[in-house]
Design brief:
Number of strands: 14
Shape: globular
CATH architecture: 3-Layer(aba) Sandwich
Strand content: 5-15%
CATH class: Alpha Beta
CATH topology: Beta-lactamase
Distance between the termini: 29 Å
Number of domains: 1
Strand order of the largest sheet: 1-3-2-13-12-11-10
Largest sheet: 7 strands, antiparallel
Structural class: alpha+beta
């Protein structure tokens, strides 16, 4: 697919534009955008293709998309900001702020366990329907009542869906307001970022339709096939892998306005590529000479390894800081100092303190895979090449 690439790149970052165009020609891209900041200033701002995966209307500079689990990094930033302000103790039990959470053997679960996917509740014995999952009170009650599947704090496994209610309810208990409101006023607005957790009706028209796409089998195209153990885990209805992703059953319609306006910090954030890059830029420095959200000490917490090794849900080795995925085989980022989060099927956002780079990529075409999407990885390699 040949497309016209719109936008600008600073001198030296031309390889990113070349990789972005190649994603459409070789890797099945339909519509996407990528933004890169360095030292708080934008150096890449590109978009191309159609705003809807199944349509022909052009992607525009302000087009936004659902970013799935890339939302988790924004939710983690909210909790770390509360810690930075002295309102949340990472070494306190979750139950100190949320007493109902102490049920079923979770009384010793620490706040840092929750952030690092060590809480032991990636599944729900009774999955929630989409309508139930849209009610934050019902979701919080379900995860509070759930018995852990391993002793909290002793191991890690990706909390694919339950991370919504774990983080959302903890923010509400500590900040006294819904997590979507906190993100809007304390993260998105100061950073000047188009990022929403609970999309306002006034912004619905900016959001493109998403859907599955396949990368074509063309010579030279990167095609990653899952290992047998991973494939078996996703195929087995009784596995933690399947149960974690099926905590909401059936999966909701991601293009429905009601889904976009719901607040699920694990999975349904809406953002532009520039919005994600600006949020992450604000976590490691000043954006456009202004806002910085994280102190250097909080930034160190974000990227300090808290979980590493075989992931009991994803069945591959993963590395997490406090709420953020870290550089590793499962989620290659720009360098070992980087922290961020991918979204299943494509989206990726991260910051790299060593180079001063922040990165945001969004797409309307979801391909298979939870972490290392080949289109996002091609762009990351191009950024690395541009830095020399």
């Amino acid at each position: 697919m040949d497309v016209r690439v719109n936008g600008t790149v600073a001198e030296g970052f031309e390889p990113v534009a070349e990789a972005f165009a190649a994603n459409f020609a070789r890797l099945g891209e339909r519509g996407a955008a990528v933004a890169v900041y360095r030292d708080g200033h934008r150096v890449v701002d590109l978009w191309a293709g159609s705003r809807d995966v199944d349509g022909s209307a052009p992607w525009e500079r302000g087009t936004a998309q659902i970013v799935r689990s890339a939302t988790k990094g924004v939710a983690a930033a909210a909790l770390l900001l509360l810690h930075q302000r002295g309102l949340l103790d990472l070494d306190a039990p979750v139950g100190a702020y949320w007493p109902e959470f102490k049920a079923a053997g979770k009384e010793r679960t620490l706040v840092r366990d929750l952030l690092a996917h060590r809480a032991g509740v990636p599944v729900l014995d009774r999955p929630l329907t989409p309508a139930e999952a849209a009610d934050p009170d019902l979701g919080a009650a379900a995860v509070a009542a759930q018995a852990p599947v391993w002793e909290p704090g002793t191991d890690h496994g990706y909390h694919a869906q339950t991370y919504s209610w774990l983080t959302g309810e903890l923010v509400r208990r500590v900040a006294g307001r819904p997590v979507g409101d906190f993100v809007a006023s304390e993260i998105a607005a100061p950073a000047g970022a188009d990022v929403w957790l609970g999309l306002p009706a006034s912004e619905q028209a900016r959001v493109g339709r998403v859907g599955p796409v396949s990368a074509p089998e063309t010579p030279g195209a990167l095609k990653v096939r899952p290992k047998r153990a991973v494939a078996d885990a996703y195929a087995d209805p009784a596995s933690l892998t399947r149960r974690a992703f099926a905590a909401i059953t059936p999966l909701p319609d991601e293009n429905a306005p009601a889904y976009r306006s719901a607040v699920r910090p694990a999975s349904n954030g809406i953002a532009t590529a520039d919005g994600l890059a600006r949020v992450y830029a604000s976590l490691i420095g000043e954006v456009d000479g202004g806002t910085r959200l994280f102190t250097p000490e909080t930034g160190e917490l974000a990227r300090a390894e808290a979980s590493a090794g075989p992931d009991r849900v994803l069945v591959v080795g993963t590395r997490f800081g406090l709420g953020f995925m870290l550089h590793g085989p499962a989620s290659p980022l720009l360098s070992p100092t980087a922290f961020g989060h991918p979204g299943r099927g494509g989206a990726l956002a991260f910051a790299d303190p060593a180079s001063g780079v922040s990165f945001g990529y969004v797409t309307n075409g979801f391909q298979g895979g939870v972490t290392a999407d080949p289109r996002a990885q091609a762009l990351v390699r191009a950024v690395r090449s541009s830095l020399g």
